[in-house]
């Protein structure tokens, strides 16, 4: 048994409305293809997004080196902000969690690179212990948040008296390619934003269980699936200019086939079904992805309300997005009778892969 203790977010400083972004992209991409794709911005169910750079930066061409330098600087500062908020979140915890009490740190990102990995620099900024276990994960894309929680759960099931901190940091704006007029890149500009999230996870026998609220959210199990020969569905094309997005129009169709079967098989194995779920904590890959999820199991839209809400307010922030959704579900349950209710956390990513976690609220 592993508990979700607290979540902290860091919101980048530049807030742009979807209409403003649409006009900005129209001024950058002047091809006929852009005129044909403009409705994507209107139909994305995204109202606003946040970025670490302003419009002027986006309007200019930048080298991979320049973009990555900015990535490192912003990733460090925003991650520290999310960590600080997470460990001192009085809404989620009964007291502050000491930095020295963190036994494992996991840093997840796919939008920039650093060696040593960014987590090392975070450890230098706060009084974490020197014997802390590190687990940096790169290249998981939109599935990274769910995979990070799943792998941290696996670790805590074998180290039941320990704690873990999972950090998802995605600065998608820094991967923008002004000279790439591919459909994937243009569609990506209608969806992707920047965001950082930190999640505290607590093992079953940890002495810090007393910090948990009376209404606790535990992770029961997880399940992974990777479809063979599907590497062209989602990911990066690494070029001399940087990271160019691969974003296939097949993704919504894979929800109705691959994802539906994965969810049904996993829940059947656990002795339950989609009809018994009270929450779908889904990564909002886009409007069409969420709509296909609704159709797959005849899900009431209110079950995905927080996924739609995060998409509307922040766009798709790759790995961090599902943690934003989880935070909203966690806060909805505070002070309410959620005991015994189950939810499934889900994210799809490069591979093409699907990650699922079965979660349950308990009172004690």
Major β-sheet annotation: 10 strands, mixed
Number of helices: 12
Q: What share of residues is helical?
A: 25-40%
The string of secondary-structure elements, in order, is EEHHHEHHEHEEHEHEEEEHEHHHEE
Structural class: alpha/beta
Count of individual domains? 2
Let me know the average pLDDT. Answer: 93
User: Looking at this structure, what is the CATH superfamily of the largest domain?
Assistant: Thiolase/Chalcone synthase
Q: Give the CATH class of the largest domain.
A: Alpha Beta
Strand content: 25-35%
Shape: globular
| CATH level 3 topology of the largest domain | Peroxisomal Thiolase, Chain A, domain 1
Q: Radius of gyration from the CA trace? A: 20 Å
Structure notes:
- The protein has 364 residues and is an alpha/beta fold.
- It has two domains: 2-211, Thiolase/Chalcone synthase (Peroxisomal Thiolase, Chain A, domain 1); 218-363, Peroxisomal Thiolase, Chain A, domain 1, CATH 3.40.47.
- It has helices spanning 18-28, 32-37, 39-43, 55-59, 64-87, 118-125, 144-158, 183-189, 251-269, 287-296, 305-314, 321-333; strands spanning 2-10, 14-17, 48-51, 104-109, 133-134, 137-138, 163-171, 194-203, 215-226, 234-239, 242-247, 277-282, 342-349, 353-363.
- Strands 1, 4, 5, 6, 7, 8, 9, 12, 13 and 14 form a ten-stranded mixed beta sheet that branches. Strands 2-3 form a two-stranded antiparallel sheet. Strands 10-11 form a two-stranded antiparallel ribbon.
- Helix 6 links the parallel strand 4 (104-109) and strand 5 (133-134).
- The longest helix is centred in the first third of the chain and has 24 residues, at 64-87.
- The two termini are 14 Å apart.
